[in-house]
Amino acid sequence: xxxxxxxxxxxxxxxxxxxxxxxxxxxxxxxxxxxxxxxxxxxxxxxxxxxxxxxxxxxxxxxxxxxxxxxxxxxxxxxxxxxxxxxxxxxxxxxxxxxxxxxxxxxxxxxxxxxxxxxxxxxxxxxxxxxxxxxxxxxxxxxxxxxxxxxxxxxxxxxxxxxxxxxxxxxxxxxxxxxxxxxxxxxxxxxxxxxxxxxxxxxxxxxxxxxxxxxxxxxxxxxxxxxxxxxxxxxxxxxxxxxxxxxxxxxxxxxxxxxxxxxxxxxxxxxxxxxxxxxxxxxxxxxxxxxxxxxxxxxxxxxxxxxxxxxxxxxxxxxxxxxxxxxxxxxxxxxxxxxxxxxxxxxxxxxxxxxxxxxxxxxxxxxxxxxxxxxxxxxxxxxxxxxxxxxxxxxxxxxxxxxxxxxxxxxxxxxxxxxxxxxxxxxxxxxxxxxxxxxxxxxxxxxx
Length: 448
Fold this sequence. Notes:
By secondary structure, this protein is α+β, with helices and mostly antiparallel strands. It is built from nine helices and 17 strands. The strands form five sheets. Strands 1-15-3-11-12 form a five-stranded antiparallel sheet, with no helix packed on it. The chain has a four-stranded antiparallel sheet with strand order 7-8-4-10. It has a three-stranded antiparallel sheet with strand order 2-14-13, with no helix packed on it.
């Protein structure tokens, strides 16, 4: 028997649909591969779901970390009756009440203007090479600038760009008399009093621009300070127009001369907003966990454990804090029948009225407050080498194992398909040869 020809297309020699037969055979052979691919997809879906859980926990923790500070719940408001005189801001230690503040003068920056003028700022040079000026402030900081042979513009630039500049800016101003040097302290108050000495003759004749404001009969450093009177009795001078020590816990920003009343009260609305942030963040996390529990993380023990631990914290009162309250429900933060959290504003307002600082301790004590303990719990899951890392590493290892199995299976299927294809080519050749022989025999028999 002659050699079986190698046909280039399956079924050409035999007329059989061997291509279709091969396709169906390979479909059966690929079923284990499809099961492996389905396993890989399931593992990857769980990995993606864990990433979503991590993101939700990170968002929840960001809110907790912002709120886990008693100052976030010991809020006060401070208002000014005349914000053209001053504005006020209250901190967590602010005392409630009203205070009359008379601003007699604002703090000023010390200014020295040259009385000697020049024809221009960029051509005429001043002094001789090597001449220097030393600029000093009361705290002992100073710098020495060489001005000899430079123009006014060059001198101002040298002062401003000097690395040892103690806090003085220089500029060149022009009026009808000509160009002159102007030095201005960067800070207000007596601490910014500028003094200047020269190695030779004084080329500028700098004089103070500021006026006598304290009635001493002439300008002194104290004329640069702000002066205010609290409740008509307590006088305070200060170098800054931002005053933090006139009334404990209250920051005053002086705006102008005059009298204003500062009223400080508890910021109940602000505290309610903070509590609502917590409620909203918890509900958002719970919604995400519910979707994952009924989806790609169905039956996931870690997720179920996290939910139990969250409920455990919410149901466990803090210890060692100074507060009338032990449970969130006592301050208006309650769990509903459907598991969501809600804020009852009237209950919170009543709790704040009864024990203002106790509410803050319950929520944000830095060891036992609900925010602190919830943050510590979430950190166990999200930290490096935490529970989520461990679970993700395990799933990734499973994905890697399945991928190797898929690669091996695909190589095996390629060999199987090549074997089938070779066998069908041989079959085509054999059938074609038999058909040719049959035709020959029929033709010979037909000749008799």
